[in-house]
Amino acid sequence: MGAFSLLPQVQAEETQNGVPQPPQIEQPATQPDAQPQTPADATSPSAQSDAPPNYELDTVVIDYKEHKIGDTVPAEYLTKTYTITEWKKRNLPAPVENSHWTYVSGNYLLITNDTGKILKAESGDIFFRH
Question: Is 32 helix (H, G, I), strand (E, B) or coil?
Fold first, then answer.
């Protein structure tokens, strides 16, 4: 009995030492006066702006409940466990008097020391700001 290949003849001819050759990709014909293509978002105002990204949040979700600026965080988030002392390293502004930064649900919240009222909320992505 002779051996036979399971590859179609065309594929067998395109292989070299049992390894198939990569497909050939045809480059689209370019028109002489054609402008280079740019992504759609490259022309948006935000892409053209040199303004720094805005990390401020209006609402945050804490323990599956939505909270807004002015709301009070649950009491457990007033403990030292959640308090951020090295706010500069996290690219956060200095806390105002009688407040501190806390890290809750992936976001930074500036809350009052006594009641935990949310004064400001920043996305956790601010940490990666250059």
Answer: coil
